[in-house]
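Your task:
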Amino acid sequence: MEILSTIHGPDDIKKLSASQCETLAKEIRQTIIDTVSRQGGHLASNLGDVELTIALHRAFNSPTDKLLFDVGHQTYAHKLLTGRQEMFSSLRSYQGMSGFPCHAESEHDLFDTGHSSTAISMGLGLARARDLRHEDYHVVSVVGDGALTGGMCYEAMNDAGDGKTRLIVVLNDNEMSISKNVGALSDYFKHLRASASWYGGKKHIKSRLQSIPLLGKPVANLIEKAKDMIKSVVTEGELFEALGFRYLGPFDGHNIEEMTRVFEEAKLIADTPLLIHVITRKGNGYDLAERQPEKFHGVAPFRVENGLKRNQSSKESAAQAAGKALCALAAQDERVVAITAAMAGGTGLSGFAEQYPQRFFDVGIAEQHAVSMAAGLARAGIRPYFAVYSTFLQRAYDQIVHDVCLQNLPVCILSDHVSLVGDDGKTHHGVLSVPMLLSIPNLTLLAPRDTDSIRASMRVSLGVDGPCVIQYPKDGIEPYARDLRGEPLAVGKWQTLREGDDCTILAYGRMVKHAMQAAQMLEKEGVHAGVIDAWSLRPMDMDCLRALFEKQAAIVTIEEGEMIGGFGSEIARLCVEHGARKLAAILGLPNRFIAHGTVDQLLEECGLTAEQIALRIKAALAVTEKKDA
């Protein structure tokens, strides 16, 4: 890596010639491919914005100038150019480099981001702080075309445009073809409009014309209307200009020299917010990713030569189990429809989209809209199922409360990636799911323990006459307790998987398996622990709880989620309400944002491996016995 190894910060990029920049782009691209093939990560989006990132750092002076990358899963080139080359080999590994912007890593990362459609709002805040303090720097928000399906972008742009705040938004459009806007007139006009001198000249000419008596103002208005007519023919920026932004482009995002020049000229325009439209190709430079960008969006470690996973798993994922079960429901009931927020593949809905295209709705990155639209479908007699990652469902909390649960409508949300998700880290962990949902009236909250239970939960959900959330982790858990009891899953009823006289463990989701393993370990040490799968988190099985309270059982709760306001907290409240014995222990995740690493590494860090659970239960029981003595 002849050029890349000499780059220790953005200042070094400015010293390079045009040909050296092209070489640098190739070296960055190869480094990203090699690293992601070993570590996993986001590939296609990062390959698509290499030249764009180089141009940004050539034109702007980070960290004095503020560069924000929306979502943040396209910042690998940015990390390599801002002094983090040595760290890059540890990408997404435990205690290594984050796959997203991370303020603790570098002053060049302004925020820890992982959700979409936020960068313009954050950028506007930075720009207004700059103006309040009479400082002088540029704020640039890089936003993908997918993020523009999120309503926050338009709220922020409307506000920025209304206030005429100096802000630069770079629209990284990797869906359109660069050939869509070609021709001499288009090229000439877009460069004229990017020219600060021409923009200033227009203002001067208009002012002079308007000063001419009688004819001046009509002529100036006629020229302005003619200009707008030309704009409507050769550009597609009318929407952005209606929001108060000056639209520039589209430009070739893989042309470093052109983009650098555009950014340099844009810096000179100070009296209006700008939107610079850039065309890029997802997966650029790696043929397999160019041809299948969705497949290479977020990838596990793979072989560069053929794109195949290094460790191919045949195990069914939780999302696949839910998706297949939903197809089965749709075959039985024509009211069943599926909704995704631009993540059909990730949430297991690709099969449903193929089998029932007329009953499948992809609303884009718009979780709030998805939930409220589902409410409308439910009110009209349809049974909507919205599959979404737990971390993104957080964005639609108001809609869940107001538009679904307050109305008591039969909307079912399939909350995927609940609990710890591993390498994507703190912005993507779904650890707030239970505290977020447990207190909402009318809501049924189910947390199946394995893929069999997921399928059973899906069947049960169709009989729930009201709002329902089924939550499950990223990884599929193969059935492991089929032969213990023949009890079918039912809302409001828990399953006893193991009897025990010394204590009873209440757990849900992935922690049920850990509870079973811990109970087996305790058995060898003479401690007889029962295990109950408390899969119906709301409504809870009050008959089971009352029975435990009556026999003064030592109860331990385990959850792979936030404990404050979580399952254990609710059991403790019920203990007080019913005058029952205090809980022996509440085990769960600590009240902090947990970094990235494998799920096993993070569970060990948080004291929730089976071995650690067994030790903690034994210690808690010893303390309880000592108090009772």
About this structure: The radius of gyration is 28 Å. The mean pLDDT is 90.
